[in-house]
Design a protein that fits this description.
The protein is α/β, with parallel strands linked by helices. The chain has a domain of 75 residues. The protein has ten helices and 13 strands. The longest helix has 18 residues.
Amino acid sequence: MSHPVLEVKNLSVSFGSREGALTAVNDISFHVDRGEVLGLVGESGSGKSVTGLAILGLIDAPGRIGANSSIRLDGQELVGMPEHELRRLRGRKLAMIFQDPMTTLNPVLRIDTQMIEAVTAHENVSERAARARAREALQRVGIPSPDERLLAYPHQFSGGMRQRVAIAIALLHRPALLVADEPTTALDVTIQAQIISEVQELASQTGTAMVWVTHDLSVVAGLADRVAVMYAGRIVEQGSVVDVLERPLHPYAHGLIGSVPSRNKRGSPLAQIPGMTPSLGRLPPGCAFHPRCPRATDICRGEWPEATAYPGGRTARCYHPHLENEVAA
């Protein structure tokens, strides 16, 4: 059997603070196969973006990846890899799209300069060949008049167009893995739908594996193959997009999906999860979700439950899951 494009095992990321070490990501494991899209979802502060940055080796001091953590890209271990080797991988085999495209784009350089440099930094090709590659990449993400657009500066593009350029740069080398950190959050719904459709098609055409970080369940429903739900730094449930969104097991996932407006009766109050996400410096004992959970009992206040396997390759960390339609494997 071939190994996954991305395999994350026991990943932990902590940051030093006045309150001591804060664990933003706590012992999470998942994998992504070739051409597959994994949706990483959860509330703000759940550890989604930190996970994405850890995969690319962008955790700087005072951040620290745990000693037992493993991140493998095509079987190659990334944790502990020297920075100069990681730089060779980023952009070529490993790429990231940020929420703000100006994180990727230099405002004082023309688009052609930035895209040509992105190509020649990793491949020994002529400027003419690099320009042709850049033009093709802009066409692929639906930007009209690519020759004209290559000569423009980032400020001459709309927000949606800038994000398309950032996606085009990320896909220049057809990377093995693409990490997208809420890249469509700031865009209007129409542009969001277009970009999601284009990215999904590109992933299927090139075989690029994707980790799509978002808090928007509607995006996950239309894009992802599998879903991992994070809470307080841990993955509390993961499985196929159909299983998790239609038959969630963990009470947190159940609450997230139940709070979507389309799931509520017209005229009735919106369902919501009571309380707030706990501070990483003051996590409650046991399962971190128990203060907000309607199913919590004394056992939930003792220690985090282990991940339990269920049919269809899904897992959940919960003592009292919604088992109405499921039986433990």
